[in-house]
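stage 2 :: seqdesign
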């Protein structure tokens, strides 16, 4: 599926991201998150996600990947430490709060129960049935140390899943196949004003395998997926990219307005004649198994 180009009314984006978490979360949900839809679809097709799937989504964000699994009939649980994104995920998957029980309520997944929880994997234990699929759809391999927090999360999630269950890790593809790489270099250059903060680095071929090994998982197949980033205009592109959090260190090292200006300039080669922005990218996923 090709990401849709959606036009948004411009609004001031000069305040620090932390000062307006709900707006940033909505930028993620309305602009950026859909860019990864081809990745979600490829993983779900590969693993034949359906009514027998009991899925735990780590860093579930605003819940689009969970919604897609739920519409296939999967029973889904998502955890995230971002309150604003979890609130949006609840709007998507739990549309009727009045019908909610202690753990959630019947969502769009063919009668299966959906749960959206704030916190880490330890909040997601399901005494009824262990999970048979754990997903980590936040791509790694873009900044130095961006997988450091993933390993503890995976280690905490493994006891909640059944033996032989699948764990999906995702990462950026080779820099030469990811147009967005040049924009992330801007973040790295600005962030270098802080010691080691958010430094950009190229994705390595074995990034995902290294994470799996550190978490005690056994690799069991991988794939690559084209995920072009398409935006209605430069303003939407800047807002979408900043909503990823990958520019936070750059903002801390300089200021929001400077980062926005630098990102907009880095986007110039990808602005088409009609004003839309188009950046081809390739992402990689690894399926690992719980021993």
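stage 2 :: out
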């Amino acid at each position: 599926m090709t990401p849709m180009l959606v036009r948004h009314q411009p609004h001031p984006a000069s305040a620090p991201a932390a000062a307006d978490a709900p707006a940033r979360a909505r930028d993620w949900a309305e602009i950026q998150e859909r860019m990864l839809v081809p990745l979600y679809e490829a993983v779900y097709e590969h693993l034949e996600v359906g009514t027998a799937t009991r899925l735990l989504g780590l860093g579930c964000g605003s819940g689009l990947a969970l919604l897609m699994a739920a519409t296939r009939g999967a029973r889904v649980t998502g955890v995230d430490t971002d309150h604003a994104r979890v609130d949006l995920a609840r709007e998507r998957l739990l549309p009727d709060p009045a019908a909610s029980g202690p753990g959630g309520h019947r969502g769009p997944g063919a009668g299966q129960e959906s749960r959206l929880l704030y916190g880490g994997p330890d909040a997601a234990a399901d005494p009824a049935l262990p999970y048979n699929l754990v997903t980590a759809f936040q791509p790694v391999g873009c900044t130095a140390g961006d997988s450091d927090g993933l390993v503890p999360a995976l280690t905490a999630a493994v006891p909640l899943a059944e033996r032989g269950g699948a764990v999906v890790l995702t990462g950026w593809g080779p820099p030469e196949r990811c147009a967005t790489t040049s924009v992330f270099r801007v973040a790295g250059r600005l962030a270098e004003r802080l010691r080691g903060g958010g430094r950009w680095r190229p994705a390595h071929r074995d990034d995902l395998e290294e994470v799996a090994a550190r978490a005690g998982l056994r690799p069991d197949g991988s794939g690559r997926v084209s995920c072009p980033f398409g935006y209605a205009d430069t303003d939407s592109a800047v807002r979408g990219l900043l909503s990823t959090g990958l520019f936070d260190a750059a903002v801390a090292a300089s200021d929001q307005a400077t980062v926005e200006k630098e990102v907009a300039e880095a986007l110039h080669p990808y602005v088409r004649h009609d004003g839309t922005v188009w950046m081809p990218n390739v992402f990689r996923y690894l399926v690992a198994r719980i021993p």
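stage 3 :: structure notes
- The chain has ten helices and ten strands.
- Confidence is low (pLDDT under 50) at residues 1-19, 99-107.
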